[in-house]
Amino acid sequence: MEDQFATLLRPYLRFLPEGEEVRPDARLRDLGLDSMQAIELLFDIEDSYQVTLPDERLNDRTFETADSLWQAVDEERDSGGRS
Predict the structure, then answer these.
(1) What are the pLDDT digits (tens) for 57-76?
(2) Which residues form the Carrier domain (predicted)?
């Protein structure tokens, strides 16, 4: 997981203690990510990484941990980015 990605996630994780890094196994919902924020985060990810996550990726499994979300983004980057 890139540092830039962790920095992008941080504002959406209201329960992440100040100064603590975003760990790959961090459960995003436990750290405060709700469904409305997930949509905003998705827009930020798509703008920052120039990718579009396909509809089949927009599920609880993808948004479960920082690493599962990063893997989805990274795979879309590797496959060409925009759908």
Answers:
(1) 999 999 999 999 999 999 99
(2) 1-77
Phi-psi region of 80 (alpha: psi -120 to 50; beta: other; left: phi over 0): left
The region that residue 19 occupies, defined by phi over 0 for left and psi between -120 and 50 for alpha, beta otherwise, is left
From residue 47, alpha-carbon distances to 18, 29, 31, 42, 51 in Å are 26, 22, 23, 9, 7
Q: How many CB atoms lie within 10 A of CB 22?
A: 23
pTM above 0.85, yes or no: yes
Tokens of 83: 């759908």
CB 9 within 8 A of CB 66: yes
